[in-house]
């Protein structure tokens, strides 16, 4: 199979499960941002590997692949199927919350805003957090026109909180201080 198909040369792309839309369609914007978030997390994982942080990120990357497939699926029955495969449910949200709580237990309480930066690992996690927020905004925008499972927005919202906390933990574990605003 060749990587290029020439099918998108006219500015349209095929959706998972059928149909075509323009490459600037809100659905494509949403799953494109989720894909960018996934790549950002891959970059963050590759910098100064920290096993306990990276172990949290690998399942998140798998979740993001499933969310991307769900967002690229116009058929509601196939979307439900993707959601069940994705395991984006209350239990998964609770797992993210437990990871956030574990980070909080390791850190001093926040007393002011943190300026993103620090170590390369933490900076990459902060970038991923902002990409996550953009993906969340795109999904909310898409959900205004297309019925989507509410759990997708909840997941992305919780994930951005987790990425913020992981960035703080990465700085702490590396001995880097935080710059406050």
From TrEMBL:
Keywords: ATP-binding, Cobalamin biosynthesis, Coiled coil, Cytoplasm, Nucleotide-binding, Transferase. Its main location: cytoplasm. Residues 76-106 form a coiled coil. It catalyses: 2 cob(II)yrinate a,c diamide + reduced [electron-transfer flavoprotein] + 2 ATP = 2 adenosylcob(III)yrinate a,c-diamide + 2 triphosphate + oxidized [electron-transfer flavoprotein] + 3 H(+); 2 cob(II)alamin + reduced [electron-transfer flavoprotein] + 2 ATP = 2 adenosylcob(III)alamin + 2 triphosphate + oxidized [electron-transfer flavoprotein] + 3 H(+). It is found in: Cytoplasm. GO terms for cellular component: cytoplasm. Its EC number is 2.5.1.17. SUPFAM superfamilies: Cobalamin adenosyltransferase-like (SSF89028). Gene3D superfamilies: Cobalamin adenosyltransferase-like. It holds the Pfam family Cob_adeno_trans. Residues 3-170 form the Cobalamin adenosyltransferase-like domain. Pathway: Cofactor biosynthesis; adenosylcobalamin biosynthesis; adenosylcobalamin from cob(II)yrinate a,c-diamide: step 2/7. One of its GO terms (biological process) is cobalamin biosynthetic process. It comes from the Bacteria. One of its GO terms (molecular function) is corrinoid adenosyltransferase activity. Belongs to the Cob(I)alamin adenosyltransferase family. NCBIfam families: PduO_Nterm. PANTHER family: CORRINOID ADENOSYLTRANSFERASE, CORRINOID ADENOSYLTRANSFERASE MMAB. This is Corrinoid adenosyltransferase.
């Amino acid at each position: 199979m060749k990587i290029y198909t020439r099918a998108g040369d006219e500015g349209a792309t095929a959706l998972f499960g059928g149909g075509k839309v323009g490459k600037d369609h809100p659905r494509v914007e949403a799953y494109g941002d989720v894909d960018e978030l996934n790549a950002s997390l891959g970059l963050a994982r590759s910098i100064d590997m920290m096993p306990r942080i990276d172990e949290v990120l690998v399942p998140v990357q798998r979740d993001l692949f499933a969310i991307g497939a769900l967002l690229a699926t116009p058929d509601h029955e196939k979307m439900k199927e993707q959601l069940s495969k994705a395991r984006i449910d209350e239990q998964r949200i609770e797992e993210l919350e437990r990871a956030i709580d574990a980070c909080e237990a390791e850190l001093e309480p926040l007393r002011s805003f943190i300026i993103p930066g620090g170590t390369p690992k933490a900076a990459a996690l902060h970038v991923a957090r902002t990409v996550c927020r953009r993906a969340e905004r795109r999904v909310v925008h898409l959900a205004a026109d297309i019925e989507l499972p509410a759990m997708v927005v909840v997941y992305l919202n919780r994930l951005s909180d987790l990425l913020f906390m992981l960035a703080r933990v990465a700085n702490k574990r590396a001995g880097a201080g935080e710059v406050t605003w």
